[in-house]
Sequence to fold (340 residues):
Amino acid sequence: MAKTIVVIGGGVAGMTAASRLADLGEKVILLEREDQTGGHLRQWDRLFPNRRPGYEVLDFLMENLEHKVDVRCNQGISSVSQQPSGFSLELEAGESLPCDALLLATGFDLFDAHKKEEYGYGIYDNVITSADLEMMFRSGQKITTRQGDAPSRVGFVHCVGSRDEKVGNLYCSKVCCVTGVKQAIEIKEQFPGAEVFGFYTDLRMYDRHFEEMYYEAQQKWDINFLRGRVSECAENQDHTIVLKIEDTLTSRPLKMTVDLMVLLVGFVPSPETLRLAAMLGIVVGEDRFLEPVDEHTRSNFTIQPGVFLAGASKGPFSISNAIADAGEAALQIHEYLRTL
Ligand code: SF4
Fold:
């Protein structure tokens, strides 16, 4: 008899795993809380490192789902419980959904920049996040300050909400350095005469072609990267932003004024992931992301038989890594279902 797998989460990892499982002949139901699939990718304009439009990847994932997977949007889950044979999900709409296996592909949230009060997000007009900037790029309009002026000086602040003991997030979010480099280049593409600065702790250009993009940013676009921590910001009467920076190479304090300050916000676990993990008895790490049984050899398995993990519910992931991880999860689930 056909087995049923429920994939929870319709972002990149959930969409990939669902379509792969369907290709392997499984009956798949994909539950998404929002009114459409696509997750954070829907808000992204161009992807690193090659700056291809994000919609190309989104369209590819959407097409792969079509006619193969039972996709159900606007589906909140009230509860999930283990049954003698498989699991039972109670949906907020009142429906009961039995299944043989579950994949948690519940993704991540972006760090809430309001929590770093010293940066003035939500208070100063021209302090925005990398997600806000990406939406501005996506709108197709020229980037301006909140007052409608072309920015002549732009600063990017790295590690906002990551590698930061004060907010309880010691981990690196992996992709915000490369996002900052990509966005800095995109600012220069629009405003070749603008001065653009990146204030970093370390530059972590970990994947293929990332380092080359960093060289391009410096050599072709003359973007300045300064190793330093932004300690506080203030707003001038003309709405420019004054930054105080501790230069961690020279140990000298710096002061700089920019027209636009971009906070490179990192990943945090979503409350929904943690709620489902508690219901299912899944191990949560000290960083609050979900723990697989073995991060090297069984990275899609949980301690609960029949419950699997994919993508950023386990920690920061790039889109390409989330797709690869979800493909592996699909194979592992397919093998597991054959044992039932
Ligand atoms: S990727 Fe870069 S900006 Fe992001 S947390 Fe790591 S070091 Fe900081």
